[in-house]
Amino acid sequence: MGLLVALTCVATMIIQIPTPATQGYVNIGDSIVLISAIFFGPQVGFVAGGLGSGLADLLSGYPQWAIATFIIKGIEGLVAGMIAHKYSVNKNFVNVYTILASVVAMVIMVVGYFLGGSVLEGVSASIGSVPSNAMQAVASLIIFFVLGFALYKAKIYKYFD
How far is CA 158 from the centre of its chain? Predict the structure, then answer.
């Protein structure tokens, strides 16, 4: 779990495209949150998403977002894991539950940052963040499915319960 927290943090910090309207940034950390949740379950998804992403905000100079990020990304990982584990990943990685889990998780992220941004920066600034968060969601989904399919083909699921 600690490794997934660290991977989420690094993936969030490695590519950061600033969004001046909300004083935040676009990143690809959601792909690791999804990997954590889909392969390891809702609890690991919550911890990796919440702690890893929140830590990235603290280390990147965005402490005002750390608590909101912890909540948003934690819920994102929790919900993705809960939905995906209705169907075992080791039977087939690309299935209705994996797709539904990942899309719902990205909607949680976009809506969560809209709500968080409304509190931190105001509604008008937060509205401006929706397109960049939607782009982040699409990029993270693509990376998640490519990386996840590779991990599935490598039969990584055989090494954990």
Answer: 24
Structure tokens at 30: 């959601």
DSSP string, the chain: -HHHHHHHHHHHHHS-EEETTTTEEE-SHHHHHHHHHHHH-HHHHHHIIIIIHHHHHHHTT-GGGHHHHHHHHHHHHHHHHHHHTTS-TTT-SSSHHHHHHHHHHHHHHHHHHHHHHHHHT-HHHHHHHHHHHHHHHHHHHHHHHHHHHHHHHTTGGGG--
Which tens digit of pLDDT belongs to each residue from 49-86?
Answer: 999 999 999 999 999 999 999 999 999 999 999 999 87
Over the stretch 10-32, which tens digit does the pLDDT of each residue have?
A: 999 998 888 776 667 778 999 99
Beta-ladder partners of 25:
18
Q: Which of 8, 10, 69 is nearest to 34 (CA)?
A: 8
Sign of CA dihedral 67, 73, 74, 75: positive
Task: Look up residue 103 and give its amino acid.
Answer: V
Structure tokens at 97: 């539950």
Distance from C-alpha of 39 to C-alpha of 151, rounded to nearest angstrom: 9
